Each structure stands twice: as structure tokens, then as C-alpha cells.
Amino acid sequence: MAKESVQTASVDAPVAPVTAGPGTGLPRQPAVKPDESLLPAKVLRALLQFHLHGHRVTPATTFRVWPALLHPFRDLRSIRHEYPLLIPGPDGRDEAQPLTTRIDNIVNESGLDGDPRERLRRHAYQFEAALKDALAGDTIAELQELAARVREQMLANSTMEEPRKVVLNSDLDLIIASLPDHTYVADCSSAIPSRLYKSVGRQYWSLHCEPFRIELEKLVHRLAGILRADAEHKPEARSADHLRNVLGSSGREDLDFDRMSELLDRTPKAETLPAERNARIAGVLETLRKMLPVYGLASTLDAPFDMQAHSTSVADAVFQVNQREACMVSFFRAIRIAELELENQYKSEIHDGFFNDFGYTHLSEEERSLCPPVVLNLSQDEVELSDAGELMELLDSNAAIKVVLQLNSLDAGERSNSPAWPTRLAASATSLGSAFVFQGTSSNPDGLRKAFAAAAAYQGPALLSVYTSNGEVNSTLPTYLDAASALESRALPTFVFNPSNGTDLAQRMSLEGNPRDDRTWVSDIFSFMNESAEESATELTYSHADFLLADVRWQEDFWVLDHGMSDEAMIPLDEFLALETERRRNCVPYIIAVDDKDEIRKVVINYRVLGQVDAVANRWRGLQEAGGIKNSHAESLMAAEQAKLEQQLQTRLAELQAETESQLDTNLGDLTREIVGRIAGQLISGASAPAGFAPSPTPARPAAAPATVDAPVEEVAEAVEEDEDDEPISLDEPYIDTPLCTSCDDCTKMSAHIFAYDGEKQAYIKDADAGSFQELVLAAEKCPVAIIHPGKPKNPNEDNLDEWIARAKPFN
Amino acid sequence: MFGLKSESVLKLDQEYHELDEYQGKESRWCPGCGDNAILAATQRLCRDEQLAPEKTVFVSGIGCAARFPHYMGTYGFHGLHGRALPVAQGVKIRRPDLNVFVNMGDGDCCSIGTAHWIHAIRTNMKMVVMLHDNNIYGLTKNQASPTTPKGRITATTPYGNLLKPMNPLTVTLGVTNVSFVAQVVEWIPDLLYKVLREAYNHKGLSFVRILQRCPHFMPTHWDELLSNPDNLAIMDSPDGVQLSDATAKIYKTRIAHDNSDLNAARQVASLEDKVPLGILYRNESVPTYDELRRPQRLPEPELTEEILNRSFDRFGISPSTSSKAGD
């Protein structure tokens, strides 16, 4: 139940004076005897008629009843819950959070102890309640302004004596100083989703763009630098006027700019950029500068499109998406050209073609993430059926769009003026696979905030479908409680479908945030006073019928029974739902409610409500499967596999049995044969032969003999190979161990006609015939790493050949 | 920065730089000089890493080795004696996008430039520092350097060098923030190239001492090592450089070494009977000054003007008033 997120203020919060009223005490089970005047058969007929046909014998009750489990929350004012919510404004830095969380933090972080801490807590709770009251009229207000107003009121209305009032004053000072600036405080209303997304989206955008902002600034600066340098190289830069302007205002009259210009004219002219390149850079620079406001580098008023505007119609959103995409394409095209230009790598013949065809599909994921998304705020009341198709198309594209869809009417069918399809849009959108989808209720602002932040970070379209209830128009419950009831009753389960988490459903779909998501319905303990005025408790289920009970449009379909009316055919709804269809006949389901006198009442539901309950349960089961809580395929597969396995086991068992038996037979036969054979052997060979088994049928292996023949041959072969390895290669041709060359230039400088460097700048013999043997030997002697091998002389007529051959020997 | 597509557009037209493109002017070092080997290995490194010539700068001081930038087809700065490192640091802090290499001789680095050497190691800015150590001043014609061996007769030590030579490795390994120290000999091209490549890919300042022949003034100085490769001990470290088979066959001596251990590196660097070769110490986690001091504001002309004006305003004299004051 909503209790998880709701703390009752009773114990530690002596808030507003406790007044007697509904919801303050335990509901009572009035001690009424069954009305004897009513004939049982008549009662049963009336109940069945109502249940099966919706036909009433008495007019619908005019007094309000509450689902029993919601009774403790009837006085929301005295309960500290998620609302009011603090939402950061344009300059706010904190996360959105409930006022209660903030107040608790202020107390916990005050550094106080003992009595002063308790006193601060009291004052803080008083302040919190007063703030809540002050907000009641509006749905949203500026926090600091409202807080200041509340503070004045509290001090003015205080009847405390002066010293205690001073303490109150200083405590209030501390509390207000600890509240964030630039923040709005909002009550639970239909404005919450759009307000919250605005805040979360803006915070994400500013943080996300930070690194890019710096890069962009640098890029513009460097590009401008190229143009500035080029301008200084132009003849105009040498003109007297230009020089005068460059100097600034002071000292102009002391300098002769015409002379300076003349002097400069005599210096060599510098080269300037080709006009085409200059124009390209200037164009790119202009495009980049236009977009500076989008990334917070200039006033957003100058942005090429309205950054803050949130569309409220699908057509307008489509227009804005197209407009932004066009801007982004030219922007990132300009950035890529700029990067090429900075590296001096832009070649018209290669790049022009690419950039002429540059479009949105060319943008990388990172670039697309830098497109400011269009935010489309839709309300269930205002959408047309024709919008549905366009919305699905938007969500199926890779456009940067975030759709915030506010729902305020669930399961009212033809009784509602609002279309029902928007309530199913989120579930359908998950089938697209490429859109981020969130569904939830405004009763869980923390879940909203997290999902909204994930949606803002998601690089693609997102649908955020939030049930906010619409005040007390459709429901007898306060807005917050109605939204919470939708979540508890599975009328609108919450889920996040985030395609960026992975490729399979298990990674993408999360049902986190639904109470007891492993069960069809939630149940909780209901405490009450029984007929004998003793405190008692029972477990009650909270089903979709409880949600509908609070909906004014469904009043006709609930029959709040008078105290005396009862029949054995009446059974609680959860028991009824558990019955098979056959056995449901002649049973009438009811739920427990509490009326405005705090008395417990049984409420019978009719077939229409029952149909809704079934439909919601089916949808919830489908969602459970998608969220991996149940898997009907796996279950049936497992059952089938189990049966198969069982069968296999049985077959195997039978096989084993048969095998064992046949083995036993064989063994017995073998044993018999062996014994008979042994006796026969002894009989034939007499005493000389050793007792033993029959000779083995395996032929003796041709032992080691062939191996001894082979071995020497192999060894010889190996020896030969080793010899080849060890023996220095002696060739007649000269050569160089090129990989060992140190590139010292000795040989190449001595005899450039013989030696040269290869691609690694290491020496080799380019042409041994181009020089004499003597030159080769001299180079070999000079080489510091002795890697030149002169070989043998080719020309037998060379002078002093014997001496050179002798000197070459150490190097060969 | 803008995803794959932008990169592919860039690559569409990216040229491949061949080895020849990294050759500047023709080398004027003596034939047989070890500088040639270092030049060839460096050019191979530039080619294999495809360093854009316009994004690469070689900075040197004074000496034979300092002619290095002239022979590279990249940007270069032939600086003042001993001042290669400050210039290189200036380049790097202002233009972090450039690949910075420093070439110094044993005089440039270990004598007049010692202060800069020590502090450059400590600031640990990303660059490759090559110490061309031929144990002699070649450019000034055979004068003793800090690494000249004891007893050596040179133009400045006619009775023989009285002092034991300095060990640049132990000095470097003693400085705070040292992050990469290696030693090679220029006549093992395979090792020289591979160590330079590791040095280039190191995150901070990599200091590579290259023992180098001077065939003109020290023709026989390294003969012992050249004829007996066993005295060259290759560091055997799992993540150290792996020699090619041909080289490994010739240089067989190995020392097992953990190059992440500073004390082990200091020990190996102090060896006297063997010449340790390879990466002695490497630590990628030492902070680099260029990253710590990465500018937060853009150097816009407006900013420059503002700062200049602020400085000028301190004097507060306009041209017209100054001429009057002069009267």
C-alpha cells in the first residue's frame, strides 16, 4: 500500500491541532443485527439483479464511501507525503525532491542535539504544514517567496510569549536559509509532469553540453584566428586607416600612420588564403556562431529556434523537430568542415561531394545526442484521434523529441469525454522498440524524476505517460491519493522501457516501483473496531474495483449496502475472482468500504465493474510477463520438458534393466566356456605345460627391431641439418647483414656507387660490379659493426689481389 | 570527437608519410658518426608512428648532436647551449598537441644544462629526451666532457682526465618524479629503435641515454664493447623490449630486471662491469606538469590585450604626457 511512501505525522509531529473528523479514528463495524423484515430470497434476488444486470432496487447512495484500505489517508493534510514537491527552476541546481525530505534533512543536518533539535523539528513541521496550507490555493509557487510569506504569518499568528517567539524566529531563519533558491514548490496537480520534465531536461542538457561547450568555443576561436591572420596578410591591413584603428583611441595624434603604411608596403607581401577557402571558413564560422546560444554560449534570445518553448500540439512538434534537424545538419556539417580546415585537410575535390549530400542520417550518435530535444506536452483531454498516428510515427523515428503525456481519466470508457487511447499509448509504444517509454503516476515523484532523467539522457524519442488525476473532478479522492490508488490497483502500473539498456526485453523492461509486482493484487492489513468495540484487523485486497469505487462516473455500478442487508451468496471480490466461472454463478462479489461516519460498509459490484477488473488484471499479467516476473512460455516449455525428461528416464531405466539382464547371461556363458577350456587344456598338455589361460589371440607386436634400423638414419639427417646451421655461409658474392646496419654513412660516403640505403635507411650492396674488390674490402674494414662481407674478387686482373683477398678473409 | 564518420572523412585524405619525408637537410656529421644511426632510428619511429611533420618539433642546444633538428624534415629549434629543455618545455606547455623531442649531447645535458635537466625530470612533461653521449666534446675539438673516462688525454686534460666520469642514469634515477629511463647503444639499431618507440609512447618525460661512437676523436673508445658484445647486458623484463632473433643471437647477456622497481633500476644503473641496455625504469602513474597546468581559459586576443593593458597600466604614462614630461 501507499504506506511505503507515506509517513503518518502522528508520533513525532505535533503539527496542526488535531480535530475530530473522518479518518482520525479506526473505522467501526456497527453492531447491527440482520434486518428481519427482509426476506432472504428477496435480498438474494435484488443482489443478483444488480450484479448481473445493473438493476437497482434502491436509488444510488448519495453519501461518499472510501475504499477501506485508504481510510487512514483520509486527512491528507495531517500526513507527511511526497507533496508539496520542490522543483528547481532555470537556475536551480538541486534535484527535485519532496518538501518533507528537505525539511527532514534540514533538521538532521542542523548539527543540533537534544532539546534544541526537538524544538527545531517541531518548528520545522509547523512550518511545513503552514506552507502546505498556504500552497493549497495555487498549484505552484516560488519557494522562497512563499516561505517568507508563511514565516510572517506564523510569527503574526503566534500566541507564544516573547522569548519563545524569538526562538521560533531564529529557527524559521535557519529553515528558510536552508531551503534552496531558484526553486518552485508544487502541489500534486496535472501540471507536475510538464513542470518536472522542464526542470530535469534543462539540468541534463546543461550538464551534457558542458564538455561540448568548451570544444565548440575553442573551435570558433581557432577558426576566427585563421581569418584574423589572413586579414592581417591582406594589402588592406597595411593601409593607414587600418593601422589607426588597430592602435585604439590613445596616442593616435602622435603617430604618422601614412608613413607607417608606406614603410610596411615596402616589406615583402605575405601569402593570403585562396578566396574560396576564406569564404568557406567564414561561412562555417557564421553557422557555428548562430548556434552558440543553443549550447549556452550566448543569450538564448538569439537562438535560431526557441529553446524554452514546449509544444502543445503534435503538428507544432513535427514542425519544430524538422526545423531543429535542419539546423543541426548544417551545424555539424560546419563542425566537420571546421575540423578539416583546422588540419588543412579540406580538399574540395574529395569533400565537396560528401558535404553536399550531408543529411540527418549522417550524424553520429554523439552528434544526435547534442540536438536539443523538442518537448511536446500533451494532455489526454486535448489530443485528437488523428494525433495518434503522427505520435507513433514520431516515436518510431530517431527524432530528438520527448513527449510528456498527462493522463487524467482511466477506464471510464464512454462515460468520459477524454479519449481512452492515450492511456494505452505507452504500452503500444514499447512495441516500437526504439523509443524510451515510461508510464507512471504523479504519486511517486522520485520515480518520475529518475525516469525523466533517463529519458532526457536517452538518445532518441521518449514517451513519458503520467497519470496525474484531475483534481476532484472525476474522483472522490484528493489528486495525490487518486494517483497513488491508480498505481496500487494496477489501473496504471508503472514501467520503464529503456532500449539503451540492452537488446533483450529483460534488460530493457523494468517494473520497478510497482507494489508487490509478483502478485495480481496488492493486499494490506486493515485495522478496525469490531462489533464489540475491540480493535481488530484483517487482510484486505486492493483491486481495481477499489480504484473505480472512488470514481464518480462509476457510482451507478456500486451498491453500498445498508447495514442490515446481508446474504450468504455474498463473497469478497478476491475470493470471487479465484473461483472458476462455473462456480461464480449465484455468487455476488463485494468489497469493503468506509463511509463518512467511519462505519464499515459492504459494497456490491456489478458486471461492468467486474469486466473492468478482469481487463486490468489481464493487462497487468501481460506486463508482468514483459517485465520478466512471469513467463508463460517458459512455464509451458518447462512442463513439456519435464514430461519429456520423465519419459526419457523411464525409457533409459527399461534399457538398463534389459542390458543388465543380457550382460548377466553373457557372463554366465563366458565363465562356463572358460572353465571347460581350462579343464580341456590340462587334459591335453598333461603336467608339463604350466597351468594358464588359452593363448591370447592378439598377434605379437613386431617389437623394436625395425625401430633400431630407423633411428640412425634420422640422427644422421639431424646432424647434417645442424652442420648446415652452424657452418658460416661462405659465398662468392659480396653481401651486407642489412638489418644490423647502424646507418652510420661510412660505406655510403666512401663508395656511393657500390653501397646505398634501403627503405629503412640501412645499407645494402646496390651494385657490386660498380667498384673494385679493394673498395669492398676497405668498406668492410671501416664498418663499425663489421657486417660487410666482400666475398671473392670478380676481376682476376685487379692489382695486389692476393693482399686484398687476405684482408677480406676476416670479414667473409 | 564527433564520432566515427567524421574520422573516416579525415582519413579519406590522410597522406602516408614516407621515411624520406622526415629527412631535412643532408647530414653533415662525420661518416661513421653514431648520430647518423640515431637519426635513422628516429626517422623510422616518425614514419612508423606517422607523426605529422607539421605537428612534430625537435629541440636541441649546442654541440654535434644539436644539429639534429636540421636533419629532420619537421619543425625544429636549434637553441642555446644547455637550454634545449626549457625551450622544449615552453613549446609543450603552449602547444600540448605537438610531439616534442629533445636532442642533447653529454655537454649540453650533463654540464651546462644540468639544472634544466634535473628540473625537467621533475616536471615530467611529455617528451622524448635523447642524450647523445659520446663521452667527448666533438664540436669544440676533443675536449673532456662530464662523461669522459678517467685518464683520457684530451685538449682540456693534457695530463689525463683526473675525475671518474659522471653516470647520467643514476643522476636521473635520483630525481623526484622520474618516470622513464633507458639506455641503449647506437650500434644496435633494433634495440635503439624499439626503446625509442617505447619512450615515445610513454606518458611523461622519457630519458634515453644513447652511448655513441665518435670516430674522429674517440676512434677506439668503444672497441672493447664492439668486439665483445657479452659486456652489453640486455634488461630482461616481461614488458621490456623484445629483440629480433638476429640481434638476440649476437647479444646474449641478459639481466633479469623489473623495470617498475625504482631501487632495482638504480642498482642496475650503477653496474660497473657491464653496460645495462634497455628500459631501466618506467612508471606511467607519475603526474605530468603539462596536464596539471593545462590552461583553463582560451588564449583569446581579448584576454591577451586585457593582460597586456593591465601590465601597461602599471606604468600609466601615455605617449603624449611622456613627451611633455621629457620637455
What is the number of domains of chain A? 6
Q: Could you list the spans of chain B in which at least 5 consecutive residues all have pLDDT below 50?
A: 1-13, 322-327
Rounded to an integer in angstroms, the radius of gyration calculated over CA atoms of chain B is 22 Å
Please summarize the sheet with the most strands of chain A.
6 strands, mixed
Given the structure, what is the number of helices of chain A?
26
Span of the ends, CA to CA of chain A? 96 Å
Report the biggest beta sheet of chain B as strand number plus sense, adding barrel if it closes: 9 strands, mixed
Structural class of chain A: alpha+beta
How many individual domains of chain B?
1
Report the strand count of chain A: 23
Side-by-side strand order of the widest sheet of chain A: 8-9-11-10-12-13
User: What's the average pLDDT of chain B?
Assistant: 89
β-strand amount of chain A: 5-15%
**Oligomeric state of the chains in view:** heterodimer
Query: What is the annotated CATH architecture of chain B?
Result: 3-Layer(aba) Sandwich
CATH topology of chain B: Rossmann fold
- Based on CA atoms alone, the radius of gyration of chain A comes out at 46 Å
State the largest interface.
A-B, 44 and 44 residues
Number of helical runs of chain B? Answer: 13
Helix content, binned percent of chain B: 25-40%
General description of the model:
The complex is a heterodimer of chains A (812) and B (327). Chain A is of the alpha+beta class and 812 residues long. Chain A folds into 6 domains: 36-75 and 521-627, no CATH class; 84-187; 198-235 and 272-365, no CATH class; 373-510, no CATH class; 631-681; 735-811, Alpha-Beta Plaits, CATH 3.30.70. Helix content of chain A is 47%, strand content 12%. Chain A has 26 helices and 23 strands. In chain A, the strands form 7 sheets. In chain A, strands 8-9-11-10-12-13 form a 6-stranded mixed β-sheet, with helices on both faces. In chain A, strands 2, 16, 17, 18 and 19 form a 5-stranded mixed β-sheet that branches. In chain A, strands 5-4-7-6 form a 4-stranded antiparallel β-sheet. The radius of gyration of chain A is 46 Å and the shape is flat. By secondary structure, chain B is α/β, with parallel strands linked by helices. Chain B has one domain: Rossmann fold (3-Layer(aba) Sandwich), CATH 3.40.50. Chain B is built from 13 helices and 9 strands. Chain B has helices at residues 3-12, 34-49, 84-94, 106-112, 114-123, 168-173, 189-200, 223-227, 245-250, 262-269, 289-292, 301-313, 319-326, and strands at 56-60, 75-78, 99-105, 127-133, 180-185, 205-211, 232-236, 254-256, 275-282. Chain B has a 9-stranded mixed β-sheet with strand order 2-1-3-4-6-5-9-7-8, sandwiched between helices. In chain B, helix 7 links the parallel strand 5 and strand 6 (205-211). In chain B, helix 2 (34-49) packs across helix 7 (189-200). The longest helix of chain B has 16 residues, at 34-49. The relative contact order of chain B is 0.11. The interface between A and B is large, with 44 and 44 residues.
